[in-house]
Amino acid sequence: MTTKIKNICCIGAGYVGGPTMAVIAQKCPHITVNVVDINPERIAAWNDENLDKLPIYEPGLKEVVNKSRGRNLFFSTDIDSAIDQAQMIFISVNTPTKDYGKGKGMAADLKYIELCTRQIADVANDDKIVVEKSTLPVRTAEAIRNILDNIGHDCNFSVLSNPEFLAEGTAVDDLLSPDRVLIGGEEDERGQDAIEALAEIYGNWVPEEKILRTNVWSSELSKLTANAFLAQRVSSINSISALCEKTGANVEEVAKAIGMDSRIGNKFLKASVGFGGSCFQKDILNLVYICRSQNLYEVADYWDQVLKINDYQKHRFADNIIQTLYNTVSGKKIAFLGWAFKKDTNDTRETPAMYVAADLLYDQAEIHVYDPKVTEHQIHNDLKLVAKDDYEKIKHRVFYYKNASEAIKKAHAVAILTEWDEFKAYDWKKIYDSMLKPAFLFDGRNILNRYEMKKLGFNIRSIGKC
């Protein structure tokens, strides 16, 4: 008989755990959902009466949280109590790329996963279903089970893999109407019962044909593979954008032509300054590391090239700005429109903007930034990551604005780094008039009509267009 879940705990109140649990709570009012985190400031933000202060910006998220918070959705730092009460525990903590030791710069750092697992084993006094929600290397479930079985208090643990397939900016819609829900579990009776217990939760709003059941290893690898394939498409079209600029072809016309081929499709063929976010680079690095650890060096090199093209695209964009501005940006004001790695999110992890900014700052430019959702504090934190020891030498040339017009006023050039919809609605004639002449415009997201911008007087450079 399938276990009826009435109480869920999620360890980790970040970009995945918070929205996922909010949607589960909304769709399953009969289930108590406790989201816990060691960060008291983050939990306080989730509990703030002002829903505009939620720690994560996602369209539709505050409405979902508002429907369930305080009813059957709770946020706290009391991890032990939440574990003790829960029948099902989701692990949704950070799995960054290692910056030390073996696998440095490539392998996933699983120390937070292990800490969570050990805490579950120490606290649990009855049977639990433990669900991997974080993106993990293949066979991590084996390590989780080993810890639980050797430390647990004579409890039975089932370990499931339930990877997220969320795109930031559309995460709530992705949760409400997923392409698929993937659940990987063990093939014995207890494992199958655990799979069905989780499937029953999703079944409250997800059609049965979209709930896929696999073994644990297939589920873990599917997440890495999905992100690798998507990133591959972005790098592929970006590599062609460089060729388009040299030959006179238009990358958008090329993308449309190949995208109409039913064998290829039109998704993720949007040329840009490069991809960012927490998943693509981290997951491909992890995939490369796994392949090399299995002596699959040619396979590893193949996927590593996807990242090399992405890095190339970011540096190429910065180099284009420098070359166009007469091979020097020293002392020149470059206005950045956008800092987040994509629109409709305040997430800046691996955002192309920070790499482009670092290149320009090293050439002694001034960077003046406006982003509707990203804070000044976050911008400086990002630059610390890429500039490292040189940060103190460049930070005085980084300026933050709460409106775009001030950031652009008397700028030598404007660079669009995020495709926020509001940028398309600006009065670009007014912007042109406020800038130093000649006025340069670098559209890193191809969101503006280059012919209209040329008519206004802009010297415009777009991705994949000459």
Residues in β-strands, percent: 5-15%
Q: How can the largest sheet be summarized?
A: 6 strands, parallel
Spatial order of the strands forming the largest sheet: 3-2-1-4-5-6
Count of DSSP E strands? Answer: 14
**Helical amount:** 40-55%
Q: Outline the low-pLDDT stretches.
A: none
Question: What's the gyration radius in Å?
Answer: 24 Å
**Distance, first to last CA:** 64 Å
Mean pLDDT: 95
Q: Output the structural class.
A: alpha/beta
Number of helices: 19
What overall geometry do the principal axes of the alpha carbons give? globular
Main attributes?
466 residues; alpha/beta
Short structural summary:
It contains 19 helices and 14 strands. The chain is an alpha/beta fold and 466 residues long.
Structural notes for this entry:
The protein contains 19 helices and 14 strands. It has helices spanning 17-27, 40-47, 61-68, 79-85, 111-123, 140-151, 171-176, 189-202, 216-247, 251-259, 280-293, 297-324, 352-362, 376-387, 391-394, 404-408, 421-424, 428-434, 450-456, and strands at residues 7-11, 32-36, 73-76, 88-91, 128-132, 157-161, 181-185, 211-215, 333-337, 366-370, 398-401, 413-416, 440-443, 459-462. Strand 7, helix 8 and strand 8 form a beta-alpha-beta unit. Helix 11 (280-293) runs antiparallel to helix 12 and helix 12 packs across helix 13.
